[in-house]
Specification:
Layout lengths: L10 H16 L9 H24 L21 H10 L7 H21 L31 H34 L4 H41 L19 E3 L2 H10 L5 E3 H10 L14 H33 L12
Parallel strand pairs: 1-2
Helix pairs in contact: 1-2, 1-3, 2-3, 3-4, 4-6, 5-6
Amino acid sequence: MAEAGAGGPRLPELLALGQRLWDELESSTEPSSGAPAVQDKVRQGLDALQRAAAMVAQLELFSENEELEEIASADLKFMLLPALLGGLTLKQVDLSRRREHLESAREHFLRFLKLCRNYGLGSFQLPPGTAGEEKAESPSVPQDPTQPNLVAMAMSRTAKIERYKQKKELENKLASMSSSVESGTADEDQIREFYTLQIQKWIGTSLEEIESIDQELVILRSRDAARQAPAGPRGPSRPARTPMKPFILTRDAAQARVFGAGYPGLPTMTVDDWYEQRRKQGIVSTPQRVPGKSDEELQKQQQKTEEEEEDEEALRKARDWDDWKDTHPRGYGNRHNMG
């Protein structure tokens, strides 16, 4: 088993510390992940696991040219280092560095998945867009880009359900084996199976985390792009309106002379004058005249409309009076002088 140099913590001790802190964070009852106690454990765990990962790289425990059977049973657990690093990296809460943490965690998870695939651990596909990963064969039927890919959605849902079932089965097996492994009573075959099950559990976790990370990164990149995009050209701004001074609005010039005499401190203005002033300021537009009609014809039409409205009002009042007389006979309500 590989160990650190003299005077420093051994590699197994660093991994054990990182795993213990991870388990404590997962079972923590702290109301906020940003609590100082929580973030202290995150920093301690990351420090221990980063030092352990550096030792593994220095000792070259894993190689692309060897088979899974060539790895010692006690060394299998060190394959979990990238996955644990990814999990702890996601628990950092510095929002100003959120995108950096997401990208770093994704790299850790991806490194772990590539390592597992190299040794034939688990049957899975690397996330889309991974360097060196062949694209899955797609059906020859052309897909309408405006419609959702129902086949892909169904396959993704099925894969998630299957991963969830496998995760529960693995957790139950690990729980039944952990006591014997931790107490040192397990034989080599049991130790090897225990760490292999842990690796398979983290394979499912890594695939789920990468999927969530990719979704969040899309949102963050869109937000950053929107912030950096220059403001689009806007139309010409409307000139600031000058505040209006109080005035008396009259119907015609005759009223203007009358009200002007009573309120010498306030200017008077006819409706036509007021309208013309607002038109020059660009606040109102010139109304479109009805073609073929003169001012005299328009005035006659308006007078006719007013007369019709007055006739309808008089007719309504007459009908109301008739209705009232029908329900109130002569002398109704006069009971004062009755003998």
